[in-house]
Amino acid sequence: MTCHNCEQSHWFWKKIGRCQRCMDQLTVLSVLCWIVWWFLCRDNPKSIESIALIFAGFAFNTLLALHLWMRFVILPWRKRSGKK
């Protein structure tokens, strides 16, 4: 699932927020996860399938939020302040 840029960089913080392909994949996975949950599992939210989809959806959303935070807040701030 990783792209060539992410395969070459070995540390998590060097990857996050820099790869558009990874952010696109997270967006698609997040949307698909919540759509599947809405149509298949919302009637029985205490089933194991529903709980698994909820956890997966929150994990995708959290990782996407971290990518976007780094992309649009941290990296531009570092660039303006002259840090690496």
UniProtKB/TrEMBL annotation:
Question: InterPro entries this protein is in?
Answer: DUF3624
- Membrane-spanning intervals of the chain: 22-40, 52-74
Membrane as a keyword of this entry, yes or no, is yes
Q: Which UniProt keywords apply?
A: Membrane, Transmembrane, Transmembrane helix
- Please name one Pfam family that this protein belongs to: DUF3624
Q: What is this protein called?
A: DUF3624 domain-containing protein
Which species is listed as the source?
Vibrio hepatarius
